[in-house]
Amino acid sequence: MYEYKIVPAPKKGLKAKGLKSPEDRFSHALCERINSEARDGWEFLRAETLPSEERSGFRSSTIVYRSVLVFRKARTQAEELAEVPAPVVPTGAPAAPPQPLIAEEDSPSSQAGPDPDDQDNSSAKA
Fold first, then answer.
1. Does the predicted TM-score (pTM) go above 0.70?
2. Three-state DSSP string of the chain
3. Among 49, 55, 59, 52, which Cα is nearest to 11's?
4. Nearest to 31, CA basis, from 51, 21, 16
5. Cα–Cα distance between 6 and 28 in angstroms, integer?
6. Percent of the chain at pLDDT above 90?
7. Once rounded to an integer, what is the mean pLDDT over residues 87-92?
8. Are residues 3 and 70 in contact, defined by beta-carbon separation less than 8 angstroms?
9. How distant, in Å, are the alpha carbons of 111, 116, 125, 126 from that of 122?
């Protein structure tokens, strides 16, 4: 089982000695971000470009595409076991039986009045 982390991809490059072109600076920024996450135990999985709906004005919205980096980390067995809820053991008196979901024939709601689709209704005139 894995745990996933998604972070925004860098939008512009980082300056570094010897890097002149924008492509080199961007690659350097991407490399720094991936290595930073790797030091914390995250494995780079992939880069994605996903749509995101954003407001643009009072009543309209537009679709903007965002680039993100996806990382994953293997979960330890202790972490997986910690998330499994403990079984609930009932204590005390037994629980009350569940209430029926369907109304009974003699319930007050079924005796509210005549059916509006009934043809022999005295208020309906032909």
1. no
2. CEEEEEEECCCCCCCCCCCCCHHHHHHHHHHHHHHHHHHCCCEEEEEEEEEEEEECCCCCEEEEEEEEEEEEEECCHHHHHHHCCCCCCCCCCCCCCCCCCCCCCCCHHHHCCCCCCCCCCCCCCC
3. 49
4. 16
5. 19
6. 50
7. 64
8. no
9. 18, 11, 8, 11
Pairwise CA distance, residues 94 & 97, whole Å:
9
**Rounded to a whole number, what is the distance in angstroms from the first to the last CA of the chain?**
71
What pLDDT is attached to residue 75?
86
Residues in the chain: 126
DSSP conformational letter for 108: G
Q: pLDDT-based confidence at 39, cuts 50/70/90? A: very high
- Two structure tokens written together for 96: 């009350």
Give the CA distances from residue 110 to residues 62, 106, 116, 119, 120, in Å, rounded to whole numbers and listed in that order.
50, 7, 13, 18, 18
Handedness of CA 81, 68, 23, 28 (dihedral sign): negative
Instruction: Over range 40-52, report the average pLDDT.
Output: 95
The two three-digit tokens of residue 111, written as one number: 């005796």
* 42, two tokens: 């995250």
